[in-house]
Every structure is written in C-alpha cells, then in structure tokens.
Design goal:
The protein is mainly α. It is built from nine helices and three strands. The protein has a three-stranded antiparallel β-sheet. The longest helix has 24 residues. The mean pLDDT is about 90.
Length: about 220
C-alpha cells in the first residue's frame, strides 16, 4: 500500500472516530447502544475498514467495549467508575481554579451568566432545552480548566469530558434537579467574578459532590 493510501485511510479513520465521539457527546448514541460498523460506514460514505479502525481506537480509550459474539457497545460504567471519575474531576477543577480565577475574562463570565439566566426563564415557563443547558453546564466547568496555567490538568480533563457529558445527559433526563443545577452554576460564576477563591473552592467541591449524588440516586 502506498503512502498516499495509508494517509487517506488514517484520515478516514480519524473522521469516523471524531463522528462517533461527537454522537456520543451529543447523546445521539447512548450508553449501552450497539455500534454498527455497516450503518456508520454507509452514513459517512466510506468503507467499513476505517470505521473498524475508529472503533478500535475508542475501545482502547475505554469508551466502547466489545462483547464476544454480540458486538461493540458504548460502555456502561459502574457506580465505582463514576465515583472514581468524579473524584478525579473534583481534584482537577479545584487545582485549576487556583490560577484560572484570576485569568478568566469578565466578558466570558457575563456571557455564561446571561445564558444561564435565559435558560432559567425558559425552565420556569416549562420550555427547557436540556441539550442547551447541558452544553452551558459543560462550558462553565470547561472555563475553569481552560484558563488555568496547568497543562497537565487540561490534558487529563480533556480526556474525561466525554464521560462527564454522558452523565450529565443521564442526570437531566432522569432526575428533577435542573433548577438547583442552574442556581449552583450561577453561584459558581458569581464567586469567580468576585475572586473569592476560598469560598469558590469549597462551593465547587460541594457542587461536584452534589452532582455525583444526583447520578447515584437509586
């Protein structure tokens, strides 16, 4: 196989990888769903080979799992998996906020506040867009990490974002905690704006613990 064809195949595999991740991130493919190579290949207009390579990449990242004789599925994590991820998430965000609190632009804080206040208004009218709120929720926490000065924190957090996003969807779909979540995110932004690091660190830890309890409710 010549170099051009190898590069083309790698590019197609990367495209398929990005598309599958995007669909999981957007909750279009949910935890426990079967991944069908042929369907994805047909939808993307490519052969099954790069899709198969993309699936191998996602299996290696512990996002998909192969069940012998059955197929490949989006991995369903155990309670322990969830607890472990949130323990690491809390540690990363509390490290990140020590530097990012002084670096986050006021314009970014105001923008997210406006989005959250608009979402609260829609929620009170019974018109909540859960996907939109899920995105803003993620943006608040991403803001904390993106503006920190620790590149290792950024790298580790980036690898966890997909799993965190999946849990958000579960929480919003199954639990009645949306108003409280909006309120807590507004409080996080207020404390960032006021540069109250000690209060913010404590509140952020409590918020992540609360989010975990919501997910683990029977």
């Amino acid at each position: 196989m010549n170099k051009l064809k190898v590069n083309e195949r790698k590019s197609l595999a990367q495209d398929a990888y990005n598309e599958i991740r995007h669909r999981i991130y957007r909750n279009e493919i949910k935890a426990g769903d079967l991944i069908k190579e042929s369907n994805i290949a047909e939808e993307l207009g490519i052969s099954r080979t790069p899709v198969r390579e993309a699936i191998k990449m996602l299996v290696s990242e512990d996002i998909l799992e192969v069940r012998d004789g059955v197929g490949t599925f989006v991995k369903m994590l155990s309670f322990k998996d969830i607890k472990d991820i949130f323990e690491v998430r809390k540690a990363l965000e509390t490290i990140a906020i020590k530097s990012s609190i002084y670096r986050i632009p006021l314009s970014k804080i105001n923008e997210l506040e406006e989005h959250l206040e608009a979402i609260m208004e829609e929620f009170e009218k019974g018109n909540l867009d859960k996907d939109k709120f899920s995105d803003i929720d993620m943006e608040v926490h991403k803001l904390i990490v993106d503006y920190c000065d620790n590149e290792y924190v950024k790298s580790i957090y980036s690898g966890m974002k997909l799993k965190i996003k999946q849990y958000q969807h579960v929480s919003y779909e199954n639990l009645n905690n949306t108003k409280e979540s909006i309120t807590q995110h507004l409080e996080i932004l207020r404390l960032i704006k006021e540069k109250k690091l000690e209060n913010l660190t404590k509140f952020l830890e409590e918020h992540i613990d609360w989010s975990l309890r919501c997910l683990l409710l029977p």
